[in-house]
From TrEMBL:
CDD domains reported for this sequence: OMP_decarboxylase_like (cd04725)
Biological process according to GO: 'de novo' pyrimidine nucleobase biosynthetic process; 'de novo' UMP biosynthetic process
Organism placement in taxonomy: Bacteria, Pseudomonadati, Pseudomonadota, Alphaproteobacteria, Rhodospirillales
Protein name (database record): Orotidine 5'-phosphate decarboxylase
UniProt gene name: pyrF
Residues annotated for substrate binding in this entry: 19, 41, 68-77, 126, 187, 196, 216-217
Free-text function comment from the UniProt entry: Catalyzes the decarboxylation of orotidine 5'-monophosphate (OMP) to uridine 5'-monophosphate (UMP).
Cellular-component GO terms for this entry: cytosol
MF-aspect GO terms: orotidine-5'-phosphate decarboxylase activity
Source organism: Zavarzinia aquatilis
This enzyme's EC code(s): 4.1.1.23
PROSITE patterns membership: OMPDECASE
Pathway assigned to this chain's UniProt record: Pyrimidine metabolism; UMP biosynthesis via de novo pathway; UMP from orotate: step 2/2
Keyword check for DNA repair: no
The keyword Lyase is assigned to this record: yes
Length: 240
């Protein structure tokens, strides 16, 4: 375990995905979790449902925000969007893992004179498996494609990658200790996979090399969300 990974706050390793239908439900989840959780992900569902205003509320509560926008467009448009996002205080921003898009986001942040958001490149969605990739025309094995896209993203200046826990160990060895690895598709051992195909527990992903895990349904569906979040944090702590 590298020093940089050990130095990170335990609570910051857990990112709760506010994948609920509206801002009111998201506020209720945040209130129920209280001080247990310090980091939240806002995806497209929230962004197009008033979530940018919710981000401001989270900032006022002292929370960190991960904007999972998966930006993809011509370089100028991605750059302009990143410039605006850099003004908000967002901690993490996702872009698709294509080198020109990563480079545009990184350069725009630099021109804005900002340190954040950290630019995270999406490698291969955890909802996809090898057959899905073949249907899309990819012939490269899934794990090799993830590595290929991660290395290209690093060359383009990305601060980290989004990747399954199944690729985390290999990516950690290749990317070094400073690149962030953020792993979605996290499920407790007794939870259904739903629409995810490459899933792990939080502890397994952290032990494999991930810095952060993104958890949605396991916490959102729990009768006691705070207790569930604490159990996940205990799992992460044991892995560390």
């Amino acid at each position: 375990m590298t020093a940089s990974r050990l130095d990170m706050s335990l609570r910051e390793r857990l990112i709760v995905a506010l994948d609920v239908p509206n801002v009111i439900q998201a506020r209720n989840i945040v209130a129920a979790l209280g001080d247990t959780v310090s980091f939240y992900k806002l995806g497209l569902q929230q962004v197009f449902g008033g979530g940018l205003g919710l981000a401001d509320e989270l900032f006022r509560l002292g929370k960190k925000v991960f904007l999972d926008a998966k930006l993809t467009d011509i370089a100028a448009t991605v750059g302009n969007a990143t410039t605006n996002i850099a003004r908000t205080g967002t901690e993490f921003l996702t872009v698709t893992g294509d080198a020109p898009i990563v480079r545009a986001a990184v350069e725009a942040r630099a021109k804005a004179g900002a340190r954040k958001p950290l630019i995270l490149a999406v490698t291969v969605l955890t909802s996809l498996d090898q057959k899905d990739l073949e249907d899309m025309g990819y012939t490269m094995p899934l794990d090799e494609l993830v590595v290929h896209r991660a290395l290209k993203a690093k060359e383009a200046g990305a601060d980290g990658v989004i990747a399954s826990g199944f690729e985390a160990a290999k990516l950690r060895a290749l990317l070094g200790p400073e690149m962030r690895i953020v792993t979605p598709g996290i499920r407790s051992a007794d939870s259904p996979k739903d629409d995810q195909k490459r899933v792990m527990t939080a502890g397994e992903a952290i032990a494999a090399g991930a810095d952060h895990v993104v958890v949605g349904r396991d916490i959102l569906r729990a009768s006691d969300p705070a207790a569930k979040a604490r159990a996940i944090l205990d799992d992460i702590a044991a892995a560390l």
